[in-house]
Specification:
By secondary structure, the protein is an alpha/beta fold. It has helices spanning about 40-50, 70-75, 90-100, 105-120, 135-145, 165-180, 190-200, 215-220, 230-240, 255-265, and strands spanning about 1-15, 15-25, 30-35, 55-60, 65, 75-80, 155, 185-190, 200-205, 210-215, 225-230, 245-250. The strands form three sheets. Strands 6-7-8-3-9-10 form a six-stranded mixed β-sheet, with helices on both faces. Strands 2-1-4-5 form a four-stranded antiparallel β-sheet. The protein starts with a strand and ends with a helix. Bound molecules: adenosine-5'-triphosphate. The site of adenosine-5'-triphosphate has 11 residues, from strand 2 and helix 1.
């Protein structure tokens, strides 16, 4: 069973924008990257999947149930892109508020609170007001909120955009740890070098349409170029007589190369 499956999913604003005819399958237990230029429709798609927007047409299921089914949403965590939390609450109180809204029991709340605060590295700042957190810390508390109910499926919209390189590495390690625990992670990010390191599969959308879905590494392995290293004099001789090569290295394409080629229509 897929963690996420959509069939011809469309969400338009009036007649335009949004995303159109998206058919997507996200394997359970994968880290799946959603890529696309600004305005491609990524956030629209995520908002439909987490139930914040109603689809215009098509079908969408998460964890085998329609996106409109509240019981499916109970197993989902979400970090939105433009996170802004109640600045007057402490980190711990913000998490408690989310836990109450989620219907966690008192025992679950205590267990989960300590665990997620430790995981995102905010245990020592738990009594500090969110308004005094740095942007990176605010993103960490957002991650903690998404993780609090111990979801099976996590939607993370630009989870590391405000973090420094050390913070990004810590979050990458956390995502891999959550994957090892069996969670599916649906990641929306412009940081291609990050997606490259951790994503099993990607989907690329442009102007609301799905351009590609699958294992990007399989695409990157296509033999396209080799790098040939030659001595200057040999090069001259090669021009006249033939070729003697010192080294031939296949040049691997990066995710960025593939992405730029795809959105340019190549
Ligand atoms: N509330 C709205 N009303 C009208 N049009 C909208 C609305 N939200 C988004 N759109 C349009 O839908 C299209 C997709 O927007 P969306 O925010 O989903 O893209 P995105 O891929 O998440 O972009 P970004 O990478 O810049 O965050 C854009 O053309 C946008 O202008």
């Amino acid at each position: 069973m897929w963690a996420i499956e959509t069939k011809q999913l469309t969400k338009t604003y009036g007649e335009r924008g949004g995303c159109q005819g998206i058919s997507l399958q996200v394997p359970r237990g994968s880290i799946f990257g959603l890529l696309g230029p600004n305005g491609a429709g990524k956030s629209t798609l995520v908002k439909v999947l987490v139930g914040l927007l109603h689809k215009t047409s098509g079908e969408a299921t998460i964890l085998g149930r329609p996106v409109t089914d509240v019981s499916a949403r109970r197993r989902v965590g979400f970090l939105p892109e433009n996170f802004r939390y109640h600045e007057w609450l402490t980190g711990e109180d913000l998490l408690r508020l989310h836990g109450v809204l989620f219907g966690l029991s008192a025992r679950e709340m205590e267990e989960r609170l300590d665990k997620v605060l430790n995981q995102v590295g905010l245990a020592e700042k738990r009594k500090q007001k969110v308004g005094t957190y740095s942007k990176g810390m605010q993103q960490r508390i957002g991650l903690a909120c998404a993780l609090l109910p111990d979801p099976e499926l996590l939607f993370l919209d630009e989870p590391t955009s405000a973090m420094d390189p050390v913070g990004r590495k810590e979050v990458r390690d956390l995502l891999l740890q959550w994957q090892a625990e069996g969670k599916t992670i649906f990641l929306n990010s412009h940081l291609l070098s990050e997606l490259e390191t951790i994503c099993d599969q990607i989907a690329v959308i442009k102007e609301g349409q799905l351009l590609y879905q699958g294992d990007w590494r399989a695409l990157a392995k296509r033999p396209k170029q080799v790098r040939v290293v030659m001595d200057e004099a040999e090069l001259e001789r090669a021009r006249m007589l033939g070729v003697k090569m010192d080294d031939v290295t296949p040049v691997a394409e990066s995710l960025e190369d593939l992405f730029l080629a795809m959105v340019a229509g190549q």
